[in-house]
Amino acid sequence: MIKFSPLLAVLLSTTAWAQEAPRPDAAAGPDSDIVVVTATRAATPIDRVAASVTVLDKAAIDRNQDFGVADLLLRTPGVTLSRNGGYGTNTSLRIRGAEPDQTVVVIDGVKLNDPSSAGGGYNFANLLVGDAARIEVLRGPQSILWGSQAIGGVVNIVTPLGERDLESSFDVEAGSRQTVSGRAAIGGRTGPLAWRVGAQAFSTQGMSALAPTFGGRDTDGYSNQSVQGRAMLDITSGVSADVRGYYSRGRTELDSTSADTRDYSLNREFVGYAGLNIDLFDARLRNRFAYGYTDTDRDNYNPARARAQSFDAAGRNERLEYQGGFAIAAGWNATFGVENERSRFRSVSPLASLATPVPAPAQGRAEITGVYAELNATLFDGLTLTGGVRNDDHNRFGSQTLFAGGAVWALPTGTVLRANYAEAFKAPTLYQLFSEFGNQALNPEEAKGWEAGAEQRLLGGVLAFGATYFERRTTNQIIYNTCPARPTEPLCFQPGSNTRRAGYYQNVARAFARGVEAVAHAQVGTRLTLDGNYSWTESEDRSPGATNGLWLPRRPRHAANASITYTLPHGYALGVAARWAGDSFDNAANTTRLESYTLVDLRAELPVTHQVKLFARVENLFDEEYQTTYRYGTLGRSLYAGFRGRF
């Protein structure tokens, strides 16, 4: 008792009891731009977060004027992108050189992934900006709070709730290649109910997905319609109910890597969430009980075939979760929870001939239960330590325990020092386990990473600059292994039979990544704003064999972004943004080089009234020809203009 009496005194003191725990909700609306939600799954000041985070608020989203979330994220440190053509084609986002399917994507607190895709990750192709009020990018391994897949990092997209009796917004624009986009949202707050609903429609004639250099001539169009909404009802003091939903439907015209085709794909995504929030002990203990559901359907068609449908896949996720937040004392907050996720998938590729029956689809199910806890503790003014542990139990490969720890020290001089260590894992996907190429003996991919950095703010934040160094090692990485024409290896045959197969998945790959991310911001007077970042990311294959030491595909080692915005009297604004990406390779053997490129964009805003603005932009001003994926085209010079209103 003598040992523990100081701790008991803290826990039972009036001061400690007066503290409120942060709300355990990754869709919470932050009150200011100094709050980060993603990092701790609860609203936390950025100077108490040990990991590297970039936050894009509504002003930044509007200022950049991008259609898709992926294009916004590409302007942030450590992020690279590859795309198989124009809008709507397969879009792979990589954070700090990790695989595209090693990033967790969250919309309003609901974790997204597609269990029917080979890597189980999220395709950013159909994710438009929509009604997003805030986008956060958390870099580095983050499985303690976010579970499987969070090896590269986490992207959290937050939509708003109504704050006034009635509010609305709209954006309408049109431009090159018969591109048209319209978005509208309406919401409000009446007594105990806050709500908001938004919708967006986008269409473009597009360009050839196959690069013209390789014979691409036709145009491959894309269209997308989406709707999303949130509502929160205060039932009684400290008790509220919360529902959220998102639906998207996209149609994309496709090309092969060698010729124009008439193929097209349909993609449908649905996200649903229902939660109950209960605050106890004057909000010192906050509890959230929730059910989340994601449903993705993908279909490919080729009208030239007798049987037009060439691919059919569906993936489902159901999540039950409890998350708690406890205010131990001033500056001491614990986050803890339990999650149960059940996934299932179905996938089949029908042959073209109507005389050949459609084969039985590949199917599979998996269940994973995770328990986690993290402590965020400010020892004294400016110094905060974070520590966490997680255990996941998978019904196929057993238990996995992970650890993380970090520190952030905000000094009175405006200097912020950060250091962080974290572990992560990625469970084998259902496709990797149960498809025609599946291997049920797979183990989870594992990663360990650390980072250290410093930021300096001067003149009250008018000038800020900083840099972070990171390393990450990944083992047991799963790759697809192609079988020879005359195989002898047992895994080249369907399990329990003599039927040959084209290949299989196995745990053989290793990867190592390290790099530096540097950022700078300057506000010159009240009119001139300068922003820039530079990323050096060395992401290498460390697998035994011929590829050891080679660059991992489609990951430029050098990338930089810069922007200048000048605001004239009466709110007129002019801006220029530039992105440079260095050389990369398209294949693991490093024999196909993708050349470096520089893109320059111009943008302008002209206020009509206090609530309505005209805007215009030119993308790829100098009509640069480049590729992010070999043989696939990219958008040339493009001009867009429109107007937006905020009421």
UniProtKB/TrEMBL annotation:
Keyword Signal attributed: yes
Locus of motif TonB C-terminal box: 630-647
Domain TonB-dependent receptor-like beta-barrel: 216-621
Pfam families assigned: Plug, TonB_dep_Rec_b-barrel
Protein localization: Cell outer membrane
Membrane disposition: Multi-pass membrane protein
Primary location group: membrane
One GO BP: monoatomic ion transport
GO (cellular component) term, any one: cell outer membrane
Record keyword Transport present: yes
CDD domains: ligand_gated_channel
PROSITE patterns hit by this protein: TONB_DEPENDENT_REC_2, TONB_DEPENDENT_REC_3
Protein keywords: Cell outer membrane, Ion transport, Membrane, Signal, TonB box, Transmembrane, Transmembrane beta strand, Transport
Position of the signal peptide: 1-18
Domain TonB-dependent receptor plug stretches: 47-154
InterPro entries: Beta-barrel_TonB, Beta-barrel_TonB_sf, Plug_dom, Plug_dom_sf, TonB-dep_rcpt-like, TonB_rcpt_CS
Domain of life, source organism: Bacteria
Similarity annotation: Belongs to the TonB-dependent receptor family.
Name under which the protein is recorded: Vitamin B12 transporter
Organism of provenance: Sphingomonas xinjiangensis
